[in-house]
Write a sequence for this structure.
């Protein structure tokens, strides 16, 4: 059987565009949550950082990855191993949480680099574990050099993401940062996809193909839950931000007038 490689024509343009949009939206939600952590201490800061890690890891990265996988017009039908797919989600959230936590604690170049390594590792594990979850009657192989490039992109994008997460304050800069993060995440994913080589094997009996879940059937609840979660986190972050800004004028009004006697 012939060996197939990935090219730009192997993807559905509409789903590629959707994967980019969900990545940008997840990044915006994550940045909004992280901005609230800067104004908190202790448990409050931890909870907002956790919310940011879930939004960026689960929304900007994992949901984007899942839609990007659906965009792939493969030459071989496949199904997904659900437990492995869920473990890939856990990997990116844990890696993202640890990386954001370290960068937030150190808040310097060392923190961004070390945190970026952890976040990038989480993204890389998520991506290739997610691809390993593809059960098909075929052999999959990867080009090592392209895999290496995808991991470098993941690391660079993670460092940039951490810098923006902990330093961006204005709405305009938050939007720009979200776009940059979306580009970085998508670049890593599709570069990783281009590393894939598929050799169909019709004689291979794959039990996992029969037991796995149909990717499109699985995508509907995942996309729905991700969208709801991101909107909830975004709404909570915006309400908290608005209430924080409202407290400043109120405090100024109660401030005693200076006496010139």
């Amino acid at each position: 059987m012939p060996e197939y490689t990935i090219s730009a024509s192997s993807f559905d343009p509409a789903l590629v565009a959707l994967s980019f949009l969900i990545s940008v939206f997840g990044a915006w939600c994550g940045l909004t949550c992280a901005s609230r952590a800067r104004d908190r201490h202790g448990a409050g800061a931890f909870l907002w950082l956790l919310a940011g890690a879930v939004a960026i890891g689960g929304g900007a990265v994992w949901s984007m990855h899942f839609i990007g996988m659906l965009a792939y017009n493969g030459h071989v039908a496949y199904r997904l191993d659900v437990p492995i797919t869920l473990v890939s989600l856990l990997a990116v959230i844990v890696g993202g949480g640890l990386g954001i936590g370290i960068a937030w604690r150190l808040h310097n170049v060392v923190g961004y680099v070390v945190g970026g390594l952890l976040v990038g590792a989480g993204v890389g594990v998520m991506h290739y574990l997610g691809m390993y979850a593809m059960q098909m009657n075929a052999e999959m192989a990867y080009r090592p050099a392209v895999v290496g490039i995808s991991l470098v992109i993941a690391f660079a994008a993670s460092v940039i993401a951490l810098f923006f997460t902990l330093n961006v304050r204005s709405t305009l800069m938050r939007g720009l940062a979200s776009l940059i993060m979306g580009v970085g995440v998508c670049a890593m994913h599709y570069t990783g996809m281009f590393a894939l080589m598929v050799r169909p094997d019709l004689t291979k009996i794959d039990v996992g193909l029969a037991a796995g879940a149909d990717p499109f059937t699985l995508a509907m609840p995942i996309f729905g839950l991700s969208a709801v979660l991101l909107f909830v986190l975004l709404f909570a972050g915006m309400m908290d931000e608005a209430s924080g800004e409202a407290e400043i004028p109120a405090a100024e009004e109660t401030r005693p007038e200076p006496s010139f006697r």
The chain has eight helices and five strands. Residues 246-261 have pLDDT under 50 and may be disordered.
